[in-house]
């Protein structure tokens, strides 16, 4: 570290009058006849974090792609160090010090962590690869990111947050002058997010210009020196730190006032127990977990990524082999496959909708009915009934798609998630497990999801919500189980459902601990 | 085409892309070319010949469509035909002393053929789904094993069906209903059933789901292993069916029976528009693919424009062209 300049806060004000490192001037972009970006002008100053926020589809991704050379602008200028440039390819932008950290992981699954970090920029000794220095450099980068993984580990074998950290390490290794981060914290837990923020402060101190996007407005308020809000391809507002609070950001993004994000909580009614799980273990990841779920309840599961929440639920859903006893409505059930689970009235909305939830190359109808296809089949599939179910899903879940036969892969994340929720609800389950209900979804749609979840509980479904977004668990649930290292570290209810208590349990801190989360 | 009727109005009904239409256009072009080069081409005798010879490949290709759609592959079907035909003939010959040269013997032979097909398909499927070995490896191994077994059974020569039994069995290939030969009728029935199964049953839906994304299928309560296993068993039964129809044609089996049929079968499926990587398959396309390959062979034999020895080269060009067209569509999306 550089102790001489590492005073995180006060440093940034001094830099704002400096010339921008990278700027877009009146950039336009059209796809065919449709104009996606209108007059985008944005400046990235050295040593400054510039946050770009907006709902999905506002044009953030396109803007970032133009900045980093993945797309060309239809009109307008890109100015680097005061001189107009044209990046014909992303490699050219990278060579000039502009690096994009992708949200969708662009890591080669079968290569090692180290090979991925240096892919295309391998260090050489003469004609041969310099394995020694690459490994040492990788170790150093991962250490800086406090991510203890082996540089030789196969990328497919590491966890999602670890992959995100590898992406960040890759960008750090390029010594970028302009770093563009596309929702870097979407897949990170609180702890890793803190590590990332520490690195961002360090990069700022080194004079790197950073563009940062996130749907988490509290993060934006915390680390951004300048915030630009986009809506429908236009820049709506640019403000300096402190000029706009989180509510104002959300309003600027949505273009209307957001009432409270969460519907009123439903306190536990003491109704009958629907699901009773005892001494449940999944491999060596989840150990002897016991909990119960009431009818019409929204039970939260919090904990760090890797604490075994997803594995526990996948075990209950029968897609992971597990042991222990499970009773539904008081009757013991044996669930060895997803089909058993669906027959027992339990469904699971997976965390990763693109890998486990939806078939991106098929249309909405086929995706919608896949889980509950039996209901539509009497030797042959009843196409008319399927269409009717799709009509109902489109209305019930407010699914917006350009046409009925659009491939699900071409829909926005929020609409994909709605199709997925409609899909699992078609099985008419009693118990609904939702893993990360709003990952990568814009604010407006998030609010809709909270309402959906509420409506499900009101209609008598029992819901389990897993989320890494603390506000979500706190806002939705009256009772929260906090997991740590494969066990339920504690259960909180009512007024105890707050960030402090949950974080303490998740981190394994002493109850009367010393306040440092 | 049948699909549009099950969809709500408002769908882009007339938006045929070249990839969907391509194989049909190619088929029509071949028919026209064939007729212009030799008017005998459209004579019913010639058409019957082409179709009944294509029927073997066609029946297997329908099964192969499901295997490939579910993300699998089967290279063993050609040698499996030879092996099944060989066993059938040996069983039937062996039964003559006990049962005489009767239809009973032939029915037993047919039963053996179908069951052997199911068993061979099940063996492929179990090795692939339960042992987790790559389909390419398993079926490549089986292809070599079956080929070697039939050579050994024939002692390097030919296994021939008893002559008088053969003449009883002959009508199964040469006979038919209303002037349409049995192999053509069976092929048509299999194709229609296959088209319905692919498009309108949960089984077809599940095959496409597995081939698109196995994990999504698993999380959607699809029995991935069982559905996959079933695709190989069905294909095996269809190979058995093809063998049952093939044996009366020549009344013999040898080392060269069904040689390269696996490639012709896979080629027909791919030409028809099914994705080799799985996830999307159409049986009617496969039927068109089978007919294209059959017609090329026939046209080259009827005319002296190009040497029939170049048949393989032309088929190869068409296979590559079909995939190029698929790619063009995928990248334009």
From TrEMBL, chain A:
One of its GO terms (molecular function) is ATP binding. Transmembrane segments: none annotated. It comes from the Bacteria. SUPFAM superfamilies: P-loop containing nucleoside triphosphate hydrolases. Its main location: membrane. It is a peripheral membrane protein. Residues 22-257, 256-510 form the ABC transporter domain. SMART domains: AAA (SM00382). GO terms for cellular component: plasma membrane. The keyword Iron-sulfur does not apply. It holds the Pfam family ABC_tran. It is found in: Cell membrane. Keywords: ATP-binding, Cell membrane, Membrane, Nucleotide-binding, Repeat, Sugar transport, Translocase, Transport. This is Monosaccharide ABC transporter ATP-binding protein (CUT2 family). The lineage of its organism: Bacteria, Pseudomonadati, Pseudomonadota, Alphaproteobacteria, Rhodobacterales.
Automatic annotation (TrEMBL), chain B:
It is a multi-pass membrane protein. The chain crosses the membrane at residues 20-38, 50-68, 75-96, 102-123, 135-154, 174-196, 229-247, 259-276, 306-325. It is found in: Cell membrane. It comes from the Bacteria. Its main location: membrane. This is Ribose transport system permease protein. InterPro entries: ABC_transp_permease. Keywords: Cell membrane, Membrane, Transmembrane, Transmembrane helix. The keyword Acetylation does not apply. GO terms for cellular component: plasma membrane. Coiled coil: none annotated. GO terms for molecular function: transmembrane transporter activity.
């Amino acid at each position: 570290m550089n102790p001489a300049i590492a005073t995180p806060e006060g440093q940034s004000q001094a830099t704002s009058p400096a010339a921008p490192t990278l700027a877009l001037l009146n950039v336009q972009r059209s796809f065919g006849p449709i104009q996606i970006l209108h007059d985008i002008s944005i400046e990235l100053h050295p040593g400054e974090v510039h946050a770009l926020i907006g709902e999905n589809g506002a044009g953030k991704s396109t803007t970032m792609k133009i900045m980093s050379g993945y797309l060309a602008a239809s009109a307008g200028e890109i100015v680097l160090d005061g001189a107009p440039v044209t990046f014909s390819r992303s490699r050219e932008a990278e060579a000039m010090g502009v690096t994009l950290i992708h949200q969708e992981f662009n890591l080669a699954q079968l290569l090692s962590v180290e090979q991925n970090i240096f892919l295309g920029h391998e260090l050489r000794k003469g004609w041969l690869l310099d394995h020694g220095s690459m490994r040492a450099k990788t170790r150093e980068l991962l250490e800086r990111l406090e991510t203890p993984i082996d540089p030789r580990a196969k990328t497919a074998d590491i966890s999602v947050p670890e992959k995100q950290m590898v992406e960040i390490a890759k960008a750090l290794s390029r010594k970028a002058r302009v770093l563009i981060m596309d929702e870097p914290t979407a897949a990170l837990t609180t702890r890793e997010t803190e590590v990332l923020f520490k690195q961002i402060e360090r990069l700022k101190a080194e004079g790197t210009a950073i563009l940062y996007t996130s749907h988490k407005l509290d993060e934006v308020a915390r680390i951004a020196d300048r915030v630009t809000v986009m809506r429908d391809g236009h820049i709506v507002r640019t403000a300096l730190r402190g000029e706009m609070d989180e509510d104002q950001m959300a309003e600027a993004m949505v273009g209307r006032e957001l009432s409270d994000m969460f519907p009123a909580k439903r306190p536990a009614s003491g109704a009958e127990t629907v699901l009773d799980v005892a001494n449940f273990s999944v491999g060596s990841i989840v150990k002897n977990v016991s909990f119960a779920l009431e009818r019409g309840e929204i039970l939260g599961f919090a904990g760090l990524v890797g604490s075994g929440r997803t594995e526990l639920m996948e075990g209950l859903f029968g897609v992971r082999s597990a042991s222990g006893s499970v009773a539904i409505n008081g009757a013991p059930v044996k669930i060895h496959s997803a089909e058993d689970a669906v027959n027992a009235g339990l469904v699971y909305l997976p965390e990763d909708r693109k890998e486990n939830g939806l078939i991106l190359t098929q249309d909405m109808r086929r995706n919608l009915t896949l889980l509950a296809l039996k209901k539509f089949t009497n030797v042959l599939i009843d196409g008319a009934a399927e269409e009717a179910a799709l009509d109902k899903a489109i209305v019930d879940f407010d699914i917006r798609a350009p046409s009925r036969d659009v491939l699900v892969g071409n829909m926005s994340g929020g609409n994909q998630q709605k199709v997925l929720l409609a899909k699992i609800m078609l099985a008419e389950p009693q118990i609904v497990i939702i893993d990360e209900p709003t990952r990568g979804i814009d604010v407006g749609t998030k609010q809709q999801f909270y309402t959906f979840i509420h409506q499900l509980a009101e209609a008598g479904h029992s819901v389990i919500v897993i989320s890494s977004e603390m506000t979500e668990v706190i806002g939705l649930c009256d009772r929260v189980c906090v997991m740590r290292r494969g066990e339920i570290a504690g259960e909180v209810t009512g007024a105890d459902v707050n960030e402090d208590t949950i974080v303490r349990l998740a981190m394994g801190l002493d109850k009367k601990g010393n306040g440092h989360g | 085409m049948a699909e549009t009727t099950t969809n709500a109005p408002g769908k882009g009904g007339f938006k045929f892309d070249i990839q969907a239409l391509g194989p049909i256009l190619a088929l029509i072009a071949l028919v026209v070319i064939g007729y212009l080069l030799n008017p005998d081409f459209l004579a019913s005798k010639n058409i019957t010949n082409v179709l009944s010879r294509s029927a073997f490949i066609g029946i297997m290709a329908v099964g192969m469509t499901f295997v490939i759609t579910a993300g699998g592959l089967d290279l063993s079907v050609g040698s499996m035909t030879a092996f099944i035909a060989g066993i059938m003939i040996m069983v039937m010959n062996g039964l003559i002393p006990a049962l005489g040269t009767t239809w009973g013997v032939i029915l037993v032979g047919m039963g053996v053929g179908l069951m052997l097909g199911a068993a061979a398909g099940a063996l492929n499927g179990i090795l692939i789904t339960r042992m987790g070995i790559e389909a390419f490896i398993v079926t490549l191994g089986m292809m070599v094993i079956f080929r070697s077994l039939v050579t050994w059974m024939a002692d390097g020569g030919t296994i021939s069906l008893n002559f008088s039994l053969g003449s009883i069995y002959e009508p199964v290939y040469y006979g038919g209903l209303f002037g349409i030969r049995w192999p053509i009728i069976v092929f048509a029935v299999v194709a229609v059933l296959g088209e319905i199964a692919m498009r309108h049953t949960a089984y077809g839906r599940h095959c496409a789901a597995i081939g698109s994304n196995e994990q999504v299928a698993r999380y959607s309560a699809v029995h991935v292993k069982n559905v996959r296993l079933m695709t190989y068993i069905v294909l095996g039964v269809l190979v058995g069916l093809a063998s049952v129809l093939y044996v009366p044609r020549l009344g013999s089996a040898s080392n060269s029976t069904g040689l390269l049929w696996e490639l012709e079968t896979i080629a027909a499926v791919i030409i028809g528009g099914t994705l080799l990587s799985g996830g999307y398959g159409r049986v009617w396309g496969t039927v068109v693919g089978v007919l294209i390959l059959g017609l090329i062979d026939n046209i080259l034999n009827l005319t002296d424009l190009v040497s029939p020895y170049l048949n393989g080269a032309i088929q190869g060009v068409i296979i590559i062209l079909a995939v190029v067209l698929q790619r063009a569509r995928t990248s334009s999306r």
